[in-house]
Amino acid sequence: MEKPKVYVAHRDVIPGTPGDYGEDAVRVVYDMLKEAIDAVGGLRSFIRDGAKVVVRANVCWAAKPETGIPSDPRVVEALMRLIRDETNPRELIVADRSSIGADTAEAFEVTGVKRAALRGGADRVLPLEQDERIPVQVPHARVLDKPVYLSKTMLEADTLIYLAKMKVHKLTNITLTMKMNQGSLDWYDAIRNHRADMHQKMVDMLKVMRPQLALIDGLWPMQGQGPGSPFPEDLIKDFNVIIAGKDPVAVDTVGATIMGFDAKHEIAMLREAEIEGLGVATLENIEVLGTPIEKVKRHFRRGNIHLIGLDPRIEVYMGGACDGCLHFTRTGLDTYLANPKLLEGVEKITIIIGSNAAVPEHLEHNPPKSYVFVVGDCTSAHKDKGIFFPGCASTSLHRTFFPGKTDEEILNNYWRVQPKGPSFEGFLHAENR
Q1: Does the N terminus or the C terminus of the chain have fewer Cβ atoms within 10 A?
Q2: pLDDT by residue (tens digit) across 33-68?
Q3: Distance (Å, rounded) from C-alpha 196 to C-alpha 389?
Q4: What's the CA gap between 213 and 219, in Å, rounded?
Q5: Same domain for 232 and 325
Q6: Residue 355 domain boundaries
């Protein structure tokens, strides 16, 4: 059996930064992309004349390009230019759906991805929440047993290209090509199975939404508390790596290895994808071309979703908490751990999370000095002790900015950013609204 080819391109220096660059930077990245894509078959091996081409970028939310959170505009612009130079598509679209509760149109602007895409030759950018959604049943699904609602534009594309950002993810260890399909879903479907079963969910999604070309942008990657770490030390500047291949599983395996993971041992979605016959996750069975892995390999700091021992003011009653609620709650807390001044005036934060937590009869909930957060459907027996964030997984403190706010203000914001979509019915019980 022929081994899938994955190419690693690296440069010691790429001019400029993601938010401030010129033609010299685009030319360097253009040459890296061409070198990598040509080595795995070239653009014309999967883009025919008159094709509708959709490139999935990663715009996350309205974060500046220098944060390392979104796709690097240098890569986006160079990729658009390369596609225009070497192929003749009918339409070239850059698409994404931002993180839960965020505005993708705003994110395209603030990240610089829209400007880079149009300047490079894209016809338009598409916030996927604005696109028509079509129900699709995943065959032989492990966890997505109900239909998922997918973008009509993506389903009708002749060629799909995924431009993943190299980042550690607190919940899944890595977020590379396969994890991009989280953004292919509408917001409600994105919350489904956002727990330990996230790995199986991404394998299910690869069965119905698979790119013909997988690219990883590792120019300024992120370690630690990704995918949107607020800690400056989690940004790795000038790593300057681009990875390309036609097998997204193999591309992610190489990417994870470069990030210092034992890919098949530590990344469950890669193991499962190989078992399901969706790609190769055994490094020895991949033909790695270009820059040797060992030359650029680095131990990326792992993410952490635990809530205990973070700050003397944070007290946690944690029963059988699942990964999803832990992930969203830690994501919210990280904002304040990275910027302690935001918690000035807050004397105590109490979190009840998980089933069967041993909770005292009396807890101090007295905003804005002290807060009690009751996280997830399985804690509903304690919902009268403070602010109850329902859901499974509950998005809890994710995008819920609480210091100085009343219960009503916090809950109004929580409901405002809750995911809605064609399959929203039944997500949360009416009595919790």
Answers
A1: N
A2: 999 999 999 999 999 999 999 999 999 999 999 999
A3: 19
A4: 18
A5: no
A6: 314-432
